[in-house]
Design goal:
336 residues, TIM Barrel, alpha/beta, 8-stranded parallel beta barrel, 41% helix
Amino acid sequence: MELGAVFSTSQGTIVGPPVGPAYPFAAWAEDAGKTLAVLEGAGFTYIAVTHAYQSSWTHPFVLLSRVAAMSGQLRMSTEILQLPLLNAMDTAYAVASLDHVSGGRLDLGIGIGYHAKELQAMGVTRADRAPKFEESVQVLRQFWTGAPVRHDGRYITVDGMQLGLVPLQRPHPPLWGAAQSLPAAQRAARTLDGIIIGPQVTFGDAKTLVDAYGTEWAKHHAEPPGRIAVWRTLIVGADPKDAFARAVASGQFTFKRYTEGGMQEKAMVKVRLALDERADDWAILGNYRDLLEGLRRTRDEVGATRVTCQLSNLPGPPAARREWLQGFAEEVVARL
């Protein structure tokens, strides 16, 4: 099973404090290079960067372009790019460029978006999201062939335009679909190369979504599914109780963006938008031993081939965080 780490410039980053006046990006980048080397040496295989307009997260394409040269052989994943909010041709161009900049180490995690304000600002309705997503995927694939694209669809019209640059990976970087609902899991199996079970989903519901993905995948492919990623929040402490108390005290787990944006929809499994006594149903809390057990559970019970780890409660200074990651390599990664 592959392990990835959520990588950002915001609060809760594994690198250090959030970027700001007291910790400028240049200082963050210096520490980020050291952290990336530790991650690769620790047995992680990729980093993940998300796409959220109203948070302090740096744009995924910008951040990944900056860290590509210092990320060694780590793959770089967008988790999750909100595809219907973007222009398909420009996205195809940006992805092809980033794939070359990274030496062919890009994975493209994509989803339909959810936040009402962001959808409105981009002129996309909730009803438009899924059909525009699927049409955008079709157009992306056409652009990445390098041939002239002719497409007259509901959302996108292209009359003979072609890209001069195609991705280094052929036919294109792997496409992973975000899923927190059965329709999304089935759509990923039908139209993409892999699935990413999004955050705040219980272990049981993650298993349900993975099973739905596998069933739908079998209808369209001869080979078994090989790309099954699950996002898990890892909350660090002396034990689960201590980890929970520290998470509460940190004030990071308010889920304000999710609740204000209307993340929970009828078609979705129940997403956990509160940090309460049920946290161990969607997060992994505690020390190295506890984290190891939770990751094994994600692999063995849920069926993950890949886990994106959002690490929280790490020691404060960047050097202390890197030291903790070294211990994680020895006590967790080596025993998976």
